[in-house]
Amino acid sequence: MEHGNLTRVTEFMLLGLPQAHKLQLFLFFLFLLFYIVILPGNVLIILTIRSDPRLGSPMYFLLANLAFLDICYCSVTPPKMLVDFFSCHKTISYRGCMAQIFFIHFLGAAEIFLLMIMAYDRYVAICKPLHYASIVSRGVCCALVGAAWVGGFMHSIVQVVLTIRLPFCGPNELDNFFCDVPQVIKLACTDTYVMEMLMFSNSGLVTLVCFVLLLISYTVLLVKLRIQSLCKKNKAASTCVTHIIVVFIMFVPALYIYARPFRSFPQDKVVSVFHTVVFPLLNPMIYTLRNKEIISSMKRLMIRYSHWGGK
């Protein structure tokens, strides 16, 4: 800390990781396994979609963007956490803390908006199949994905601007393994009630509204599918169910963290680990294991590369 007229926090201590050496070692290898599976899994999805003309529909274009977001998202906090397992002085600088907050909310919000776009894509495909190609063209998809990134940036910049305006003069201990608004804001040496309400509106209410809208849209789609032919019904229903699973996996932890008062609960760290480390791993597994086209394309891609490698 720096001393002058006012003591200013220049770093935060991360107390969220366990102190027992054996448990730290076990968690290190467990999370490292998650991390080395996340990256190849998402990269493989992107390469498969880009290399196979059969996967040229907007749905797969959006899925490739979702995989890219997962790669970025799981690169914000896990690397620092893995290093801290072997560090005696588990700290993060003030600027590093603000950077973590920015990228967590930037990428998380962009992913939420992308899931909204994917729901819109499925609505058009099921309810207006004859006009699907003209309504959801590649240009429209690119514009919508760009809007999702811009929306994520706007959401995140509000979080960061509100946070950096707060005075931090001690204590500087965060009971977590990374920086996030609910923990950091409680360390401010001022009344944060108004800030908490603003951040709750910007994060909690937005997440809740998006979650409810997604549930309503997929419920309507599943009802619409009852009048489709059996073949189209099964394929579309399988895709919708996959999207619903991902929506629940992403939104339930986010709602627990942001759509409630900023108070500490014993299970907070477990939910945070699930939301930032385990959740990105589940996306590619769910989409690939439930999608026969992607699995077939992956097999063809690996066979093609194995033939090239054998020459």
From TrEMBL:
The gene is LOC113406665. It is a multi-pass membrane protein. It comes from the Eukaryota. CDD domains: 7tmA_OR4N-like (cd15937). PANTHER family: OLFACTORY RECEPTOR (PTHR48002). Signal peptide: none annotated. Belongs to the G-protein coupled receptor 1 family. The chain crosses the membrane at residues 23-47, 59-78, 98-120, 132-158, 205-225, 237-258, 270-289. Keywords: Cell membrane, G-protein coupled receptor, Membrane, Olfaction, Receptor, Sensory transduction, Transducer, Transmembrane, Transmembrane helix. GO terms for cellular component: plasma membrane. GO terms for molecular function: G protein-coupled receptor activity; olfactory receptor activity. It is found in: Cell membrane; Membrane. Residues 41-287 form the G-protein coupled receptors family 1 profile domain. This is Olfactory receptor. The keyword Cell membrane applies. Its main location: membrane. InterPro entries: GPCR_Rhodpsn, GPCR_Rhodpsn_7TM, Olfact_rcpt, Olfactory_Receptors.
